[in-house]
Amino acid sequence: ESKSINVDEKIRTVCSYCGVGCNLEVSVVSGKVKSIQAPINAEVNEGHLCLKGRYAFSFYDHQDRIKTPLIRRNGVLEPTTWKEAYDFITEKLTAIIQKNGPDAVAGVSSSRCTNEENYLMQKFMRAAIGTNNIDCCARVCHGPTAFGMQKAFGTGAATNSIEDIKLTDCIMVIGSNPTNAHPVTGAKIKQFAMKGKTTIVIDPRKTEIAKYATYHLQLRPGTNVALLNMILYYIITEGYVSKGFIKHRTEGYEEFSEKIKGIDIAEMEKITGVDRNLVREAALVFDKAPNAMLFHGLGVTEHSQGSHAVMLIADLAMITGNIGRRGVGVNPLRGQNNVQGAADMGCQPNMGAGYMSAYDPEINKHYEAFYERKIPTSYGYKIPEMFDAALDGKLKAMWIMGEDVVHTDPNTNKVIAALESLELLVVQELFLSETTKHATVVLPGASFLEKTGTFTNGERRIQQVNAVVEVLDGAKTDGQILVDMMNKMGYYQAPYQPKAVLREISKIVPFFSGVTWEGLGINGKQWPVKEDGLGTKILHTEKFEGGIRGKFNFYDFKETNEIVKNGKDFPYILTTNRGLEHYNSGTMTRRTDNVKILTEDHLKINPIDAEKFSIKDEDLVCVMSARGKVDMRASVSDEVKPGILSTTFHFPDVLLNLITGNEHDCEAMCPEYKVVAVNIRKSKGD
Ligand code: SF4
User: Fold this and answer.
1) Which residues have any ligand 1 atom within 6 Å of their CB?
2) Which of 86, 194, 105, 663 is nearest to 424 (CA)?
3) How much is the average pLDDT of 524-541?
4) Among the four residues 1, 119, 355, 593, which has the most C-beta atoms within 10 Å?
5) pLDDT at position 4, please?
6) Candidates 45, 333, 465: which one to mutate for ligand 1, based on the most atoms within 8 Å of Cβ?
């Protein structure tokens, strides 16, 4: 594991942008990355890469990389040594824990980091610090998917594999823009649609995939639950429900179907803004397809009823019998490269590594046997609760690994106030960010090109990540930093060797029991990987996870508080999304040539609304919400309907989250980024 990297060679690793998990063949010359190609034998990407994975790598040795730890003195971050930084943090953390207890500390892990690093991060919080205050960015993206699918199927992960696109007869894409956000999978869906195969898109925006779709149900943002109930209504009242599957594999159908039959179709039509005849036609076509796949993205989850919509998608798969075989299933398009892995590794307050309850003393004995330390059963904060607890004075220290929460979490002013109220904020980062502006200590981490370990993609595929260049001088891998700190805090952790950590994970996490570094091979294995080392392409073939029956759940549409409270004063709905060229806060892609292609965020506005305000392309528009206002350049487009606005949030110059709000998914606390009540006017530059 300590082998140094040859200066001229081709090394295989995995992309660190989206959850598709494409394999990369990285050409290294004289210790520097020269180019990236798609390996011909990669099962995930089959010879393809997108603009981000293939070209957006030059951030790794960008001049902005932080090359030494920084400590804030007299309000200014100043360079320091690793020893001084570690000593300073240890002293501060120890004092905070002695005075306020371990629950005054919280950690945010990173979906950019490897499984091994995520596992160590939650172990650091639980075993070394003694708190369940550990969470990750799954909270702000697919938390509702994990919750909803777990409730319906017993497992919160994709049921099928991307290669099943070749075997299906019909695809329904809900709240996802895959050609931008998951381009390699998006291209496969687009090719499917271009062949004239039945493709149904449910999205408030005329996305690229919507243009190729057989049906585009262009609903008002925030009304997924109403639209899904309409689809379920038409299938149950006029279509063919899969009686055999329902009888043998599920429970609760009778009650569920009675409730669906009772919905007011005229009212739902009014709420969604989609013609009931179009919904009926799409529903019955989906129902008739011998095999149909469901894909969904953040346009489903980032709502106050995100979890409810996920459970209705599960209902749709079950009533049509589209579970447990090739070419079907519920397939969330996971956002970050390793967001599946971060959750699998226990970076959430209520569940440890392998999704076992963190609040049950009996179950905790399983973890304690490996951690050799008593671990807590007390309630742990989710990310939004961490900010509330900091503002209430209950949380005194936060440790954030590779996440720019000021840029990406909603209601920026509140996040800043929370971070400013802490006694200690430690941030592991590649670059100075909006969040490091409020840090007490910044520790320079390493990029994926400098790391060895594993990532798990959106189809549960655990893949080898191989370091292709040496760690930048002055920086350390995030796993190394965590191991150093655990030892400093008096909790012994063996020298950091990712393959040894993977061995530990395989003993603790039941669905990793057959995982070995060598056994993963070049194309990885999809979990569960049993003792025999074989992976699993499809879940729930004979029975649902844990031998349970699939559970039907009904939810009625409920207007979000954001509209109820603010809709009168702020009559437009803003919905946020991502462009092809950049990834989320753009920390990495803005430091590559991609920034020459997409240079700033634009507000998409329908021509009718633009005319009302005399707004033309590139005019500055002031967008106001109950939280604040931002100025953005306009892009007049029929991608959105009148009354709806849309924008990306890749550039910190705008800090769009100054205007997003505090509403979140009622179950998983995922912020409601997709519905923001706003008003607009031509900017006066004030
Ligand atoms: Fe990377 Fe996703 Fe693009 Fe593949 S599709 S190259 S994983 S960003």
Assistant:
1) 15, 17-18, 20-22, 45, 49-50, 52-53, 182-184
2) 105
3) 94
4) 119
5) 61
6) 45
Taking residues 412-432, what's their average pLDDT? 97
For residue 320, report the distance from its CA to the centre of ligand 1, in Å. Answer: 31
Instruction: Quick: pLDDT tens for 561-613.
Output: 999 999 999 999 999 888 888 888 788 888 888 888 888 889 999 999 999 99
pLDDT confidence tier of residue 336, bands split at 50, 70 and 90 = confident
3-state DSSP assignment of residue 298: helix
The mean per-residue pLDDT over the stretch 462-483 comes to 96
DSSP 8-state assignment for residue 412: H
Domains and CATH numbers, the chain: 9-61 (2.20.25.90), 70-102+110-140+348-510 (3.40.50.740), 143-336 (3.40.228.10), 561-682 (2.40.40.20)
What the block records as the tokens of 634 is 């306009």
How far apart CA 411 and CA 63 sit, in angstroms, is 31
Q: How many other C-beta atoms are found inside a 10 Å radius of the C-beta of residue 224? A: 30
Q: For ligand 1, what atom is nearest to the CA of residue 185?
A: 5
Q: CA-to-CA distance for 238 and 635, rounded, in angstroms?
A: 42
Residue type, 227: L
For residue 383, give every residue at least 6 positions away whose Cβ sits within 8 Å of its Cβ, in sequence order, or none: 108, 135, 137, 139, 140, 405, 409, 669
For residue 138, the model assigns a pLDDT of 79
| Strand duo 9-14 + 23-29: pairing | antiparallel
Characterize 465-491 residue by residue with b for buried, 16 or more Cβ atoms within 10 angstroms of its Cβ, and e for exposed.
bbbbbebbeebbbbbbbbbbbbbbbeb
What ipTM was predicted for this assembly?
Answer: 1.00
Alpha-carbon Rg for the chain in angstroms? 24
107 contacts 380 by C-beta, under 8 angstroms: no
Among the listed residues 426, 523, 381, the one whose alpha carbon sits nearest the alpha carbon of residue 41: 523
* Helix, coil or strand: residue 180: helix
Closest by Cα among 557, 559, 568 to 677 = 568
Q: Whose CA is nearest to atom 4 of ligand 1?
A: 22
335 CA → ligand 1 middle, Å: 10
Question: What confidence category does residue 1 fall into, taking pLDDT thresholds of 50, 70 and 90?
Answer: very low
CB atoms within 10 A of CB 636: 20
* pLDDT at 684 (0 to 100): 76
Report which ligand 1 atom has the smallest distance to the Cα of 49: 6
Model's pTM, two decimal places?
0.94
Mean pLDDT computed over 67-84: 97
For residue 605, CA distances in Å to 89, 205, 630, 635 come to 48, 11, 15, 6
685: left (phi over 0), alpha (psi -120 to 50) or beta: left
pLDDT of residue 659: 87
Pocket test for ligand 1, best of 14, 16, 18, 57 (most atoms within 8 A of CB): 18
Question: Number of helices (H) and strands (E), helices first, in the chain?
Answer: 25, 26
- CA-based max dimension of the chain: 70
For residue 638, the model assigns a pLDDT of 95
CA distances from 471 to 221, 447, 451, 478, 480 (A): 44, 8, 8, 11, 11
Tokens of 681: 């006017």
In angstroms, what is the span from residue 426 Cα to ligand 1's centroid?
30
Atom of ligand 1 nearest to the CA of 44: 4
- 17 CA distance to ligand 1 centroid (A)? 6
